[in-house]
Amino acid sequence: QVQLVESGGGLVQPGGSLRLSCAASGSSISASTMAWYRQAPGKQRELVAKIISDHSTVYADAVKGRFTISRDNAKNTAYLQMNSLKPEDTGVYYCRRIEPWGTNSWGQGTQVTVSS
Fold first, then answer.
1. Partner residues linked to 25 by β-bridges
2. 69 secondary structure, DSSP code
3. Fewer C-beta neighbours within 10 Å, C or N terminus of the chain?
4. What is the overall mean pLDDT for the chain?
């Protein structure tokens, strides 16, 4: 059974940094696309960044230049380094794993709050 567990969220001041981790179990992530989404209160869940199996990346315009997605297949883990955080980055951040054949799974989410 595929499981994803996010960690690393918390409260940070504007301009600060956080690093989120998404640990996968059940099978290797090496062929999977790994993605981070976020959902702010009262808003739809949106894509933040994704990293393909070949390590190519895609970012939402709102986070380009501030966030970096990465993966360590040996540790079966994906990461999201978030720098220069803004209050509008506040939300629940979810990890998503997408298999080449189309099935996908989600983590339970981790709260990120950017506030002074």
1. 3
2. E
3. N
4. 97
